[in-house]
From TrEMBL, chains A, B:
<comment type="similarity">
    <text>Belongs to the serine/threonine dehydratase family.</text>
</comment>
<dbReference type="InterPro" id="IPR036052">
    <property type="entry name" value="TrpB-like_PALP_sf"/>
</dbReference>
<dbReference type="Pfam" id="PF00291">
    <property type="entry name" value="PALP"/>
</dbReference>
<keyword id="KW-0663">Pyridoxal phosphate</keyword>
<dbReference type="InterPro" id="IPR001926">
    <property type="entry name" value="TrpB-like_PALP"/>
</dbReference>
<feature type="domain" description="Tryptophan synthase beta chain-like PALP">
    <location>
        <begin position="78"/>
        <end position="391"/>
    </location>
</feature>
<protein>
    <recommendedName>
        <fullName>Tryptophan synthase beta chain-like PALP domain-containing protein</fullName>
    </recommendedName>
</protein>
Amino acid sequence: MADPSTCLPLTPDSIRRTHERIKTYIHRTPLIVSRTMNKIASSPDPRAYLADDPPGIWDDDGMDGDGRGSGNEVPRFNLYFKCENHQKIGAFKARGAFSALTHLASPPNAELRGIGIEALRKRGVVTHSSGNHAQALALAASTLGVPAWIVMPTISTKSKISGTKGHKGVTVVFSGSTAPEREAVVNEVIEERRKETGEKGPILVPPYDHVDILLGQGTAGYEAEEQLRSMKRSGKICSGAAEGGHDAADGGRGGAGEGRFDAVLTPLGGGGLLGGTATWYSHTHESSKKTLVFGCEPNFEGANDGERGLAAKPPKRIEHVKTLTVADGLRTPVGIIPWSVISDNEKVEGVFSVSEDEIKMALKLMMERVKVVIEPSSAVPVAVILFNQRFRQLVAEKQKEEGTGRPCDVGVIISGGNTTVEGLSKLFSEGWNKFDAERQTGEVGVDGSRTAEDVAG
Amino acid sequence: MADPSTCLPLTPDSIRRTHERIKTYIHRTPLIVSRTMNKIASSPDPRAYLADDPPGIWDDDGMDGDGRGSGNEVPRFNLYFKCENHQKIGAFKARGAFSALTHLASPPNAELRGIGIEALRKRGVVTHSSGNHAQALALAASTLGVPAWIVMPTISTKSKISGTKGHKGVTVVFSGSTAPEREAVVNEVIEERRKETGEKGPILVPPYDHVDILLGQGTAGYEAEEQLRSMKRSGKICSGAAEGGHDAADGGRGGAGEGRFDAVLTPLGGGGLLGGTATWYSHTHESSKKTLVFGCEPNFEGANDGERGLAAKPPKRIEHVKTLTVADGLRTPVGIIPWSVISDNEKVEGVFSVSEDEIKMALKLMMERVKVVIEPSSAVPVAVILFNQRFRQLVAEKQKEEGTGRPCDVGVIISGGNTTVEGLSKLFSEGWNKFDAERQTGEVGVDGSRTAEDVAG
């Protein structure tokens, strides 16, 4: 990875500059809206839409008025999904990989002091990953003509291995599956190459714990805001519609409050995406309409390490997590650099978590009602919006304060879509009958949390 | 249904006028492109992408040149998916229902002689359907304030029943599941209402066998062409991008050959969608670049009645089909009025069919690679493009004739997305291991057909 001293600072401006650097390599993914999901999210009981006999969607049955004036405060949402499932390699990770490699490729005497493309091509890059980061780095390296060594656990699925080694100049090296085993193989690769070439050996590009990675992932949030502004200005907001054009001109218009999200939610695993997103939206802090950024985690087997770490007094990063949550992209603990952003309550407003069944319910609704294929990790923020009573109450309260009856404009970063029909089949053919029972007991506790599990995991 | 003598003729201009009439009621669904699917479709063996060890997608590995100059002629595609899975009620059927009802609602003394909205509200409408047409008519009727009686077989799924009766003013009446049983109940409803009100009783709106329905369904093809033109003009064609705005201005530009599809494919069940689409594209016949329209069917248990009917000498509509193909929207035989269009070889260039496994393979690729949820019926045209050797050979030959090396611009009408995660689970957890075997035997016969089954079903 690039010497940290040569990285841009973790600021909104650095994200804008990173976007400028990587935009020709990545897709400007669509920002889509769904009238159906707005209706479901803005209903008093979104779970009702999962019943065998769900309420209708299309009639103007007065639901728009739900909760206003009544005793129950029901939050109201206009949701905007930033579809990184349509990103190259099917996930946002392409952004971070291109950010890291284009920094390294910068000439040493340029402002962004890298090692230069020639030196980079001599040395190459290395990482260990069994998931989207492996494919993202393989893509970025082969695109720039840089050799890459990707250490993958032998137990990785065949399709992921071939999706990684299918790129030109990429070598997959196998390892055991624990972190020490993987790191040992990375060191072996570096040592071997060093001996072979007499050079310094391949440069490690970690999946999330580096400033360049955060700056890259943050560009998804940057684009989403730009697209919202362009949609609001053109009036092109309709159900099923998408804004997918390249570089819609901004012209610097859209003053405070115009085309700003009220809130943006991202999944939280290692923290690259949340850290980058929160860094971008800190630019709204001088404005009258601040965009609040939230992280979203599964709470199964303690996967909500971010939420638990923030709840500790004093807040403290949790370093080890062992969970088999269905949201397999979110099984890692938050990294050190992401934690520095996430634990800054000026940047991240809060972290919320949801149960496995809530994730599956949200995934089912996104697939059946919005007709998009997303990976379980991407359903986590949707589940927070639909089912986390503390989050919903917070939104309802903000709306009551504002008093205009305007629904909240909420951005949701859909992190990726790398799943298989077989994987989905497995998910929905087992243990898939809990929500009706839960529905009966989903009471809101005195502090607004549904159950102790929400916090303690 | 409206008196046939008051219907517009089955011409492109009538489709334009129908679109004008219904456009405020329906969604202008996005037209999306996928670089990944273009690459898969343009490869010599699309099945390879279903193997455990599939070829890469993102490297520029020279695949764009595949088949050119070599002995094997490989067709090359730029695919455009018209996403009616994002239409209201999740399928194109909303178009036909609004077309039928807005015609009926026209005043008797207007050009389009209906019975007037007041008379229509007094009489109401009736149909029998267990699927998308039931919900489409329920939506259109409730939107226009017209009472509707929908006869549904008692065995219909609960979600479809509630999706139908959830609309205001809609009454679901149950029946047996055979056609005579359903028709008997329709007649009972009409008789009963007639006695109750002293009026003529509710008007029958059939699912496909009526000119108004064809004209409505054809508007999907009309919009797709308009969107292609707008995309080509703006240069806004990128992977993952979508054109979803309302009424992009055309300005009458785009002369012959500019922004025209080389071919458009639709699923073929009752024939409303194919008949309407072919009617619209007959407007290209005076142009130097004619858009060829193809129908696509499953061949399981003789579901390819359209293909078989056209192959008969002389061609003859097949009136009865009994099949349990996974493409459940395509189990019905072609209707009389649709047949009049489909059997006109000036309008429909051909009908091709695919096996159950080919449909599942196409569905899997659309979900995993394009990240969209579609119903199995909508995967049928995709399967024809990827796996029907006769179709692929035909495209390759046209390309050889043209000699420019330009890929074909092919529109695919994605008819709907009404499926459930449980339904998908069932589909992909059983008998899902055939494609590797088939891959070995997928030889092309002397006449270009893969096996006798393709034609005989």
